[in-house]
Amino acid sequence: QVQLVESGGGLVQPGGSLRLSCAASGSIASINVMGWYRQVPGKQRELVANIIEGGTTTYSDSVKGRFTISRGNAENMVYLQMNSLKAEDTAVYYCNAAIASLIGRADYWGQGTQVTVSS
Fold first, then answer.
1. Taking the CA of residue 48 as centre, how many other CA atoms within 13 Å lie in the half-sphere pointing to its CB?
2. Do the beta carbons of residue 49 and residue 93 sit within 8 Å?
3. What is the mean pLDDT of the chain?
């Protein structure tokens, strides 16, 4: 059984910063990709950023230059540093990982963490 658990969401004023964390646990053989998606009511879930084995990163245009994704020293961690936050960044943020485990390869999702940017 593989689980992803996010933390670090909350309420922040425009221009502020938050750091999201995601920990993967369980019978993990390898993690190929870890990333962050976000979703607002009535809209599709969208990619925010991801990082693949070797460290190559991808960002959506809307967050480039403001957000930074990184993997932790513990291999099963991923972080999203969010700076210069805007009201339009308000969403539920989900951690995602492509993981090879004892039962094969699959995509896993966390439960989501709310980020609200408001004055």
1. 28
2. no
3. 95
- The b/e string for 39-73 (b: 16+ C-beta within 10 A; e otherwise) is eeeeeeeeebbbbeeeeeeebeeebeeebbbebee
Amino acid in position 88: E
Contact 20, 68 (CB under 8 A): no
pLDDT band at 36 (very low <50, low <70, confident <90, very high): very high
To which residue do tokens 């039962």 refer? 103
Structure tokens that stand for 110 in this block: 């966390």
pLDDT in tens, 50-64: 999 888 999 999 999
Residues 48, 15, 111, CA angle at the centre, nearest 5°? 40
